[in-house]
Specification:
Number of domains: 2
Oligomer: single chain
Number of strands: 5
Strand content: 15-25%
Number of helices: 9
Shape: globular
Strand order of the largest sheet: 3-2-1-4-5
Structural class: alpha/beta
Low-confidence stretches: none
Largest sheet: 5 strands, mixed
Length: about 240
């Protein structure tokens, strides 16, 4: 049944699953534009329009995110949480991100607002993931929304009641530095035209970064061959 679902996932595409996944991996891993990637394909004798590449990313980036989650190593209970800014259709939206004390990605959430409700949505999403634990410490900046969100979640029992919230900006350098990678990847695209497009693409950026960091069992950091084989296996495709 899983193999049949994988075949249906690529059904009707003009190109093979191997070519599509190659394009998805390279776009989500390196700071290149769709036109740059189309030129790379052309150099290999494959003619692919940049709009086709865009459609591939929109279709397969969120699917990659969904399939990778259950293969991630467990993160630790020291969370470093921060938001960065992404431009969508000429307006700034907020990307909530968290890493653990070792720099491993915990989770992310794109939100049109930066308030306590958005912070709670982010924490709830992160806590639902199979590779996360209820944190013992949450380090954030001086954003007043975080104390409101964590107190509400402790009352409802979603967050461990002994979890300590630390509003110490300099301790968050690790997640602020991790933001730079997202900024580098977003820049060649010259901004997103819709919130949905941004959300799907960023999900791909983030999950590919998890793979690059070595958060996947049996796919070591910086081993591109092993990482390529892992992604091919997820989609039941020959690497």
């Amino acid at each position: 049944m899983v193999e049949q679902n994988n075949k249906n996932l690529f059904k009707g595409r003009q190109f093979t699953a191997e070519i599509i996944l190659w394009a998805v991996r390279w776009y989500l891993r390196f700071p290149i534009s769709y036109r740059d990637l189309a030129c790379m394909f052309s150099d290999r004798g494959v003619q692919v329009d940049h709009t086709t590449l865009f459609r591939w990313i929109q279709a397969y980036a969120p699917e990659l995110d969904k399939r990778v989650r259950s293969h991630l190593r467990m993160t630790n209970g020291s969370w470093r949480v921060d938001e960065t800014y992404i431009r969508v259709k000429g307006k700034w939206v907020y990307l909530y991100r968290a890493v653990d004390a070792g720099g491993q990605t915990i989770d992310f959430l794109l939100s049109p607002k930066r308030d306590a409700a958005a912070a709670r949505r982010f924490f709830r999403k992160a806590l639902r993931q199979p590779h996360t634990v209820n944190p013992r410490t949450i380090t954030v900046d001086k954003n007043a929304a975080y104390p409101i969100a964590t107190k509400a979640m402790k009352r409802e029992g979603t967050l461990w009641r002994f979890a300590k919230l630390r509003q110490v900006k300099f301790l968050n350098n690790i997640v602020e530095q991790d933001h730079r990678r997202i900024k580098r990847l977003v820049r060649p695209g010259l901004g997103f035209q819709s919130f949905m497009t941004a959300s799907r693409t960023i999900a791909g950026y983030e999950v590919m970064a998890m793979i690059r960091k070595g958060q996947v069992v049996n796919a070591p950091a910086n081993d591109m061959r092993a990482q390529s084989d892992f992604i091919a296996t997820l989609f039941s495709v020959a690497a």
